[in-house]
Amino acid sequence: MDSFEKIYSEYKHKVYFFVKKYIQKEEDAEDIVQDIFVHVWKHLDENAQIAVEAIVFKTCKQEVSNFYRKNKLLFTFSEKEVVKAEEEEIIDEKYYEEQVSKIESLLEKLPLKTKDLFIQHKIKNISYSQLAKENNLSKTAISKQINKALSFLKGNFQ
């Protein structure tokens, strides 16, 4: 399950924007994205050796095609569209990596305790209550530390 969560968090935005290029209605796009991740989840273990990205985007193409087939619409993935989409994904990935790098460098400037609490809460999804118990602090103190980190990141992220 951890590997699926990692795949989901890494690809959710890429998959959504890929699908959104071909499906106009928001509800339909969200349904297709959900179907894609259900398919990936079902087939993750048996295809563990195959590149995950290949599975995810092949599934995207299949699900979009299935949508058009179910709705009796004509649609084809042309080779130009696929190449253009892949180029856009590379650009988006570089931009994403740059943004992550900026955030990581800003996190390094935070006091160690603030940084640790922020990562545990925002990245590892640990609740204020649990953090308070583990660190012998009040929930208010935890909240202040998290808000301090958020304010710092928002103020310095450009």
TrEMBL record:
KW Transcription regulation (keyword) present: yes
One Pfam short name: Sigma70_r2
Keyword vocabulary terms for this entry: Sigma factor, Transcription, Transcription regulation
Domain RNA polymerase sigma-70 region positions: 7-72
Xref: Gene3D superfamilies: 1.10.1740.10, Winged helix-like DNA-binding domain superfamily/Winged helix DNA-binding domain
Alphabetized InterPro entries for the sequence: RNA_pol_sigma-70-like (IPR039425), RNA_pol_sigma-70_dom (IPR014284), RNA_pol_sigma70_r2 (IPR007627), RNA_pol_sigma_r2 (IPR013325), RNA_pol_sigma_r3/r4-like (IPR013324), WH-like_DNA-bd_sf (IPR036388)
GO molecular function terms noted in the UniProt entry: sigma factor activity
Superkingdom field: Bacteria
UniProt record, GO biological process: DNA-templated transcription initiation
Similarity-based family: Belongs to the sigma-70 factor family. ECF subfamily.
Protein known as: Sigma-70 family RNA polymerase sigma factor
Lineage summary: Bacteria, Pseudomonadati, Bacteroidota, Flavobacteriia, Flavobacteriales
